[in-house]
Every structure is written in C-alpha cells, then in structure tokens.
Design brief:
The complex is a heterodimer of chains A (about 290) and B (about 375).
Chain A (H helix, E strand, L loop, with lengths): L2 H9 L12 H11 L5 H24 L14 H8 L2 H34 L5 H7 L2 H4 L2 H15 L5 H25 L4 H8 L4 H12 L1 H17 L2 H6 L7 H9 L5 H30 L1
Chain B lengths: L5 E10 L2 E11 L4 E5 L6 H9 L6 E6 L2 E2 L10 E4 L11 H11 L4 H14 L15 H13 L5 E5 L7 H18 L2 E6 L2 H7 L2 E6 L2 E6 L1 H6 L4 H6 L4 E11 L2 E6 L3 E6 L9 E6 L5 E3 L10 E13 L3 E8 L4 E7 L15 E7 L3 E7 L2
Parallel strand pairs in B: 3-8, 3-9, 6-7, 7-8
Antiparallel strand pairs in B: 1-2, 1-4, 4-5, 9-10, 11-12, 11-14, 12-13, 14-20, 15-19, 16-17, 16-19, 17-18
Helix pairs in contact in B: 2-3, 2-4, 3-4
Classes of the chains: A mainly alpha (about 290), B alpha+beta (about 375).
Chain lengths: ~290, ~375
C-alpha cells in the first residue's frame, strides 16, 4: 500500500494499522477496488474476453441458423434435431472417444502416479535420467510420436484399432500425470513417509493411506488433463487408427472435407454446454487443487 | 507403559567416505531422559535414526531390552519418533493424525475414540481435534506429533530436535511440558539436540558427541562442572580455557603454569603429578570482579589484573570481557542479585581485579608425564 492511500485512510478516520501488518490478500483486494476501470488494463481485459469468446459466440449463432452458409437465414433447431436423431455414426465416434479417453486417462493416472512416487522417493541408478526421459513425449512433435508408435505396433504385430489408440493415448498422457503428481510430491517432506512407517504402517499401507491421499489433488488434476488431451487428440490417433475405430476428432475431420455441416456446430455447442455443466459444480474443488 | 533399556554397542556408520558414527557404545537405562548433544554433523541424528529403524548400522549392535533390533524395520520396533519437521499427515485432521496408529491396528471405534481423547488431553489439545494440521501453530503441531508418537505406547520415545523450529520463549515452555510428559508416561526418552541449555535442563544423563564419537556421558552437573575434554568444556556453557603444565603438586592442590596468565592454583580430585600437561578451565560466573585488589586473606585465591574491554549489560547480569596485562581475554559474569539504579559500578576501560578460589577451577585433559 502506498503512503498516499495510508494517509487517505487516516483522514477518513479508518483505524490506524501498521503498514506491514496487512496480509497480502487484503491489500490485493484493496488495490482491485482502488483501480480505475477505464485504464489500459481494463481495455486489455475486455479485448481478451472478446478474443476468447467471440468464436464460441459465432459457433452458437451458426448452430441455430436455418440453412448452411455464412448468412443468417432464420432461427431453427433443425441441426440439433439432426444431431440427436440422424447422426448414428457421429455418436459411435463420440462413444469411442469417451471410452478411450476414460480408459487411457485411468491407465496413465495409475502408472504416472506410481512412477512419480518411485522417482521422487526411492533411490535407484539413473533416477535423474528417468525423470528427464519422462518429459520427452511432452516436447516431441506429435507426428514423431505418431510415426514411432505406428512402427512399433507394426513391429509387434498389433492390429490397429481401438486397442492401439488406447495404448497410444495412455503413452502420451503418462508424462502429464507424472509431472503433476511429482510437483505435488516435491512439496512434501520425506519424514511424513518415515513417520507412517514408524507408527506401524507397512510399505503398502503407507502408499494407500498416506502417499496417495496426500497427492490426491495432483492425481485428480492429472486425470482431468489426461481425459482432455485424449478427447481432443488428432495427429497421433490418425496414425494408429484402424478400420472401424473412428474417434470424434477423426470423424469431424473427415466430415468437414465435404463442407462443414452445421450438425458439427450443434455438437460443439452441446459439448461446450456439457463441459460448463461439469465444471461449475467442480469449481470449488478445482480452486482447491490450484491453491494446494 | 514401561520403558526399556537401550544398549548400543560399538556402532559404526559411514556415508560414502564420511564417518557419521565411529565405534559408539552407550547404555541407556529404563525410564531415563537421555540426551544426545553435539554440534550439527556430530552423528547424533544418525544414531537416533539407527535406533528408530531408518538407518542400518555398518557395524555393531543395538539392543532394546536385550533383544537385537538391527534387522527390524521401523514398523516392527517398540520405538516411536517425534520428527524435527513434525511430519504430520497434512490430509488428516488432528484427531485422525493421532488415531493413525490405532486405525492401522484396527482398534474398535469406541476404544479408539477414548484413547485419542486421552492423548490429546495429555498434550492439551482436546479443543483442536477437528482442525487440520495447517491450522495449528508450530508449538501445537509439535504437541500433536508427541501425542501421535505416544499413543502406540512405545517403550522408547525418540525425539529429533523437536523444539528447534520454535521460538525461544515457546521452546522453554515446551521443554517444561516435555519433562512433565516424561514424568507421566515413564518411558525411556532419547532426546537429540544441539542446544546445551535444553539438554542441561531436562536430561537425567547427557552424551556429548563430536565427529561421530561420544566424548563424555554423565548427569548434567557432571558434564558442566567436570568436562572430560576441551571440546566438552567449550561446547557446554561458556568457559575460560587455557593450556598449561603442572609445576608443583601438594596433595590435591596443584599449581599450573599458564604462559598467558601466570601461575594458577587449582584443587583436583586425584593428585596430579608435576610435569603433567593440562588444560585449565574456570567458568565465568565463578570469577569475581572488583575495582580494588581483594585482601589476601586466603592463600588459595587466584588474582589476575586486567582492564575491562567490553561490558555487556543484560538485566539480570553483566558480562565482562577483561583483557589481562599479558593480552588474554577472560569472560566474567557478574550477577545483579541486589536492586541498583545507580548504573554500572565497573565501567569500560576501568582497571579491575579478577579473583577465584582454587576450588572453582578444574583441570581438563590431564596428560601425566
């Protein structure tokens, strides 16, 4: 807080407080109130909001347009009706995506969490290299991962399809979970583990009753990230897919080659609505994750 | 609850080329409040971790009530540890933290609840049972850690610098509390600290350690008044320590020639022959400081002349640094036992006489010829 605000506060008869005695949060809140709305930052704020949400608004409007094309031709629910009644193939692709997202995220979460615990709290040769190597799939271009997985699957003779996509997704999701759980574990002191053992817990009990619950926020955010990444992945999936195993992004891509059908717009709006409906009740929990 | 004897014999432990413990042997008695005292890196924490089952010694044995425990992991030992960093489980409430060991043993809920309440009452935290560790102050967290370590009814409680993260006032308070908990539960306490004040005030016996070795074991007054080595004399409290040689010896009265001080009289427990090389130590609070030369009524009074280099007033006492004519500095503590508002009697740069009787000095590290 500046001296001027302190003086002003004193003039207004506010109780005198030591300048340093104020918590960071309190002073941030005061600053927010004091700032004028018509500043450059206010402009930047609104510009960002518009930039972020304009495409969504366009999509929303287009999904209610009666006819295909750029010009407004009247309000209609026709594309929504088509989406829910005449789009069997689309829903099959959506089902595939959901199944793969859930299964691969679950696998990546279990493996990534165990890997993070092992690398953080156990000593073994080349531990530092394992840690670094784990981040490779995050940095490598997707196309490299896609090709290498394809070569690998061909080499071991795995038939391309849902299983190969599932394995591929679990693979590229693993480092994200690993990173998030590691970050959480790094905050804890190893003596917590020793304390659990000292109080009579076996190694497995320590894992289940102390380490996993303690790193739950990291595990949960890792899982959610993995679901999202899997749902939206196109490049890697494109390489390792096989006949009949179409995910939603692949379906949409093949559909827009014949011009964007407004059914896709309607689907997008439904998905955005679904995500918002999911996130709102979870908002406090997400905040808790971020705060931890 | 009953305490256990702990017998440590010839324990050695190295980390790479660093010898953390070198041939350490200690006998700790049932129900004793025993302190391991030494500067950081002296091996005291390593020894405690070996007792707790977190480290395996390279050589030697550790026995609790005569049973060798070296091969047992931490969860199989009747020892519990209070960690320096508290090590509370951040995701569990205070109640659940203390209940943790009982839940592992599947204690029935009714028994569990009343036991946890008893132990929270022991550390005066009944009112905080539903809080999370993050909501407690440092002193409260430490008390939770103590209750959690005691609820399993261990026969030995290991405390690893439990008070080092607390501020000075709270530390004093917790120390008294720890002592009263020890009186109530009656088990063996092994307390690791680098703070000689803590160790002196609560321990039944103290082992002073340095560089992986035990230098002296004994009750606090023995460690303070009769240090076995120069290191112990310097590490425990403050002292004036000089190297010298015995030049005359009459029964239990020895005359020590110290190059920087002159000849000093000192009484000893055993006769020390002339020609022995010794260290002479006298505690600052045993030296009297006066502006006038004391009347030579007693034959065994040592008197040294000097000038005040630095007086440090701290309310209950003044600490003087006095430089003698031969250029060495003595530390002298003068207690302010009587009320006085006149200001200091002895001022900076004033010429003073230091005196102490032969009984107040002690000989350390006697090397007989």
């Amino acid at each position: 807080m500046s001296d001027e605000t302190l003086l002003a506060e004193r003039r207004n008869g506010a109780p005198l407080r030591a300048k340093t005695g104020r918590s960071g949060l309190e002073s941030r809140q005061r600053h927010a109130k004091a700032r004028a709305a018509s500043s450059f930052s206010g402009f930047a704020y609104w510009a960002t909001i518009v930039f972020f949400f304009m495409p969504l608004v366009v999509l929303l409007v287009a999904s209610f347009d009666k006819e295909k094309g750029g010009e407004w031709s009247g309000f209609s629910f026709i594309w929504y009706v088509k989406l829910f009644t005449e789009s069997g193939e689309l829903w099959r692709a959506f089902g595939n995506s959901a199944l793969i997202a859930f299964a691969s995220a679950l696998t990546a979460t279990v493996l990534g969490t165990l890997a993070a615990i092992g690398v953080t709290w156990y000593k073994f040769p080349f531990r530092g290299y394992v840690r670094t190597l784990n981040f490779l799939p995050m940095i490598l271009p997707e196309i490299v991962i896609g090709i290498s997985l394809l070569v690998f699957f061909a080499g071991v003779g795995l038939k391309l399809g849902l299983v190969s996509i599932y394995i591929a997704h679990a693979t590229f999701n693993l480092p994200f979970v690993f990173l998030m759980v590691s970050a959480r574990l790094d905050e804890f002191d190893y003596s917590v583990i020793e304390a659990a053992r000292d109080l009579g817990a076996s190694e497995f009990q320590t894992l289940m009753k102390v380490i996993v619950p303690m790193s739950m926020p990291g595990i949960a955010s890792g899982f959610l990230t993995a679901v999202t990444l899997s749902l939206e992945d196109f490049v890697i999936t494109f390489f390792v897919t096989g006949p009949g195993a179409t995910t939603l992004p692949l379906f949409v891509y093949s559909a827009i080659r014949f011009g964007v059908s407004p059914v896709i717009n309607a689907l997008s709006v439904v998905m955005v609505a679904g995500t918002v409906a999911l996130i709102l009740p979870l908002r406090n929990y997400l905040k808790y994750i971020a705060a931890k | 609850m009953n305490g256990s004897d702990v017998t440590i014999s010839r324990v050695g432990k190295s980390f790479g080329s660093f010898a953390a413990l070198d041939d350490v042997s200690l006998d700790i008695r049932k129900g004793e409040f025993f302190s391991l005292l030494g500067p950081s890196g002296c091996g005291k924490t390593t020894l405690l971790r070996i007792l707790g089952g977190f480290e395996v010694p390279d050589e030697g044995t550790v026995a609790i009530d005569g049973v060798d425990v070296v091969g047992l992991s931490a969860d199989k030992r009747r020892t519990n540890t209070v960690f320096q960093s508290y090590a509370l489980f951040p995701h569990l409430s205070i109640f659940e933290n203390v209940a943790f060991p009982l839940r592992l043993r599947k204690v029935p809920p009714k028994v569990l609840s009343s036991r946890v309440k008893d132990y929270l009452a022991l550390v005066q935290l009944e009112a905080h049972a539903d809080k999370m560790p993050a909501q407690l102050s440092g002193g409260q967290k430490q008390r939770v850690a103590i209750a959690r370590a005691l609820i399993n009814e261990p026969s030995v409680l290991l405390l690893d610098e439990p008070l080092s993260a607390l501020d000075a006032k709270l530390r004093q308070h917790m120390l008294v509390e720890l002592d009263s908990i020890h009186d109530k539960v009656g088990i063996t306490f092994i307390y690791v600290t680098h703070d000689q004040g803590e160790a002196l005030s609560v321990s039944d016996r103290i082992a002073v350690m340095n560089q992986g070795k035990v230098l002296q074991v004994g009750p606090p007054h023995e460690i303070y008044e009769d240090p076995a080595t120069d290191f112990v004399a310097r590490f425990i409290g403050e002292t004036n320590l000089f190297r010298g040689a015995v030049v005359r010896s009459e029964g239990l009265l020895a005359t020590v020639a110290i190059p920087e001080v002159g000849e000093v009289l000192v009484t000893t427990d055993d006769p020390v022959p002339a020609g022995s090389s010794v260290s002479f130590a006298v505690r600052p609070e045993k030296i009297r400081i006066a502006a006038q030369k004391p009347a030579a009524a007693r034959k065994d009074l040592n008197v040294v002349k000097g000038a005040v280099d630095e007086p440090i007033y701290s309310g209950f006492q003044t600490k003087f640094y006095v430089r003698t004519e031969k250029g060495v500095t003595f530390k002298v503590f003068k207690q302010h036992a009587d009320y006085s508002d006149k200001g200091p009697e002895i001022k900076w740069r004033q010429e003073v006489f230091l005196s102490w009787s032969a009984e107040d000095g002690t000989l350390v590290e006697v090397a007989r010829p």
